[in-house]
Amino acid sequence: MEPLQLLASGFLDALTWQNLVWVTLGCLLGTAVGVMPGLGSSMAVALLLPVTFSLEPTAAFIMFAGVYFGGLFGDSTMGILMNTPGQASAIASTFEGHRMAKNGRAAQALATAAIGAFIGGFVASVIVVFLAPALAEFSSRFGPAEFFALAVFAFVATSSVVTDSPVKGLSALFLGLGIAVVGIDGVSGAPRFTAGSPQLFDGVSLVTVTVAVLALGEVIHVACLERHRSGSELIRPKGRTLLGWKEFREAGPAWARGTAIGLPFGIVPAGGSELPTFLAYGLEKRLDARRKDPQFGKGAIRGLAAPEAAGNSTTGMAMGALLALGLPISATAAIMLAAFRQYGLQPGPLLFERAPELVWALLASFFIAMIVLLVINLPFATVWAKLLLLPRPYLYAGITVMCALGIYASSGSTFDLLMLLGIGIVGFVMRAADYPVAPLIIGMVLGPVAETGLRDAMMSANGDATALVSSPITITLYALLVLVVIGSIVNRVREKRR
């Protein structure tokens, strides 16, 4: 009963009128940015990261939770109405969702996505309430070697296993690790890769990197490479946004299966929601093929319901892994981890001891965010669709201004503005050459964790490298990593043979 009592105290903190305003504002902003062409939930969090530093931590993270979950719904709205998903996690939803829209069922498709996101996120939040304290207690057994193994697992899984090209994924990872070590070494006091510049002695700000790569890089990419491309025609939703009993009965099992598929991926560094959404879609497609009247390819509601539930259940569980283990499984979660560090907080077992009010108020806000999103998305789906009519030049000019103002407001340094531009160009080159940006962000966030864990483990063992694989936890993590890599190689070989 202790988690329920702590959650009740969290609701007392989260249900103050100030925090209700922040979570509602976060849901509105997240949905709005996710709906807009070319943007997504990760960009929404990145843009708001420098803005929220004036807030106290609980209000800031409650707002981030609303942005995080709201952005996922916005991503799917674009995919359903324009066949252009905001992020990779919404690709699977576009297959049947856009066909439903073309068949005159756009409103029902948006309702299916909203309810599926609510179910997946709500179930995941319930599980996180009971699982996160247990995970935090388990992670209290971690020493330097275990944290190093966990970081290596995340590095390899996100850069070489879940990307199309392992070489490009690892290249992006090493770029992130290289940026992470710039500055004065905390142990030896020696400057590293600063080129003698005093402005780099404190290192490169993670806020600057995330805003530059995720936001400014996307703006430059659209301006240079996509301005002459013709966009997909917008399908405007009409009619009722509520589902009938027949549609509920059709989508219900798919929502349940999608939620079950997405839950385990929230605590495994496998690149976020992309994989579980495709798995959920694939399962529904195989089940549909056995029916007397297959509906896939014609706008099957189950082909939309399952990926939406899977994506949000993964996201909800990912927040639990972030709070209990300090492990980000996606670029957006990595930005959230950066936000914790900007406030001087380190997710993990000590966070539950040192800031329990923050943790449980944040967990309570997950439930509030789900309800708020359901309220603002079901009746106002047609309103969100109108955001897709915004002219792109005005939209991306506004984003550029927000990037510059946010970075300058948080640092007050013109050097950081130049850094923003330089790294933004790097982000553009990565997109143009089809390099993934998530490994770069995760490498920069977890790089210091891996370095500290490796250094402390080797110093405590007098340089004996066997200390890195001397505990059951490290052996298990490395064994799982080997199995994951072997499975990925086998799948790639099979695909090439086909």
Write the layout of secondary structure elements.
Blueprint: H1 2-14, H2 17-35, H3 41-48, H4 57-82, H5 91-139, H6 144-161, H7 166-180, E1 183-184, E2 191-192, H8 206-225, H9 245-262, H10 274-289, H11 302-325, H12 331-342, H13 349-354, H14 356-377, H15 381-386, H16 392-411, H17 414-432, H18 438-460, H19 472-497
Q: Please state the structural category.
A: mainly alpha
Low-confidence stretches: none
The radius of gyration is 22 Å
Task: Count up the helices.
Answer: 19
N-to-C terminal Cα separation, in Å? 53 Å
Protein name: Tripartite tricarboxylate transporter permease TctA
Keywords: Membrane, Transmembrane, Transmembrane helix
Describe the structure.
The chain has one domain (2-497). The longest helix has 49 residues, at 91-139. The protein is built from 19 helices and 2 strands. It has a two-stranded antiparallel sheet with strand order 1-2. The protein has 498 residues and is mainly α. It is globular.
Could you name the key traits of this structure?
498 residues, mainly alpha, two-stranded antiparallel sheet, 19 helices, 72% helix, 1% strand, DUF112_TM, Tripartite tricarboxylate transporter permease TctA
Task: Give a brief outline of the structure.
The protein is mostly helical and 498 residues long. It has helices at 2-14, 17-35, 41-48, 57-82, 91-139, 144-161, 166-180, 206-225, 245-262, 274-289, 302-325, 331-342, 349-354, 356-377, 381-386, 392-411, 414-432, 438-460, 472-497, and strands at residues 183-184, 191-192.
